[in-house]
Amino acid sequence: MLESSITQCAFWKTYFTPRRYSYDKIPDQTGKIAIVTGANTGLGYATMVGLAGHGALVFLACRSKDRALAAIERAKIEIKEKYPQAADPKLEFLELDLNDMNKCKQAAKEFLGKGLPLHLLVNNSGIIMTPFALSADGIEQQFAVNHMGHFVFTMALLDRIKESQPSRIVVLSSFAHEGPTKGGIDFDTLNEEKKSDTVTRYGRSKLANVLFAKALARRLAETQVYVNIVHPGYVATEWARQDSFGTFMTKIFEKLSKVVAMTPEIGALTQLYVATSPEIVNKNIRGRYFIPIANEIQTSAYGQDEQLQEKLWSFTEKLVRENVRA
Length: 326
Known about the structure:
Layout: H1 5-8, H2 10-13, E1 33-37, H3 42-52, E2 57-62, H4 65-82, E3 90-95, H5 101-112, E4 120-123, H6 141-163, E5 167-172, H7 198-219, E6 225-230, H8 246-260, H9 264-267, H10 269-276, H11 278-282, E7 289-291, E8 295-297, H12 306-323
Parallel strand pairs: 1-2, 1-4, 2-3, 4-5, 5-6, 6-7
Antiparallel strand pairs: 7-8
């Protein structure tokens, strides 16, 4: 039987768990090459600054070149202030549109063409509780952007990641993965607007992140590629600008965020732990789920269901075959 959402839900636990990681614990990242999706703002930006500030070459995989380049200039100044002894930060833009699977594959090809290793992929970007829409491939948009786009991007880069091992893949999910309806993912009605609401669709996409990461970790169990999952907590990011709930409720959330939300700098610490801590390799941590700050808990029962993980994998591969050009 599924565990109670009240006892299992990660949200309230984030306020009672210790901070197990900090920026001064991040080891030297010199020589490491990382890609962070959605690195121009919020959690992705804070993650990028933390990695680059410790010596990594970081590619900002973003849809908007202008916003990414502005973020790079802002980050260079911030890194010099936070890490005055650090070398000049190494930051580059990589165009990535997660709403279009063919563009995700093209972004991976663009990186592969540089002939560089890839030690770290942080699948950070996503959309949250947006109004119903279909992606460029005709797939419900939250599922498409949060899961499908990252699946295509990750799998296209996977051989390079394996060649670069020890390496890591960090998949951002959310406590919202605990919320989908019976069965976990309604594969047959995924694209039917009337069959779900915006909150359920978001939770479905976040459950897909968990299922994908666990299935991928199992496939890489005999390698030194470490795949793990993160719920960053309630973080004051730019998601409210999507105005999913209307102007009034958006203002309420903005005010609430100022009181109880973590800053992106604090919220990013859990994914930075998974991305950089020696514990991940030393303790052979893979396929695990972490909440702030760097505390492991179990996912929902659906998230642990290997049969559902494999059903999603097959379903996803079928959509890729139908939509992505060879």
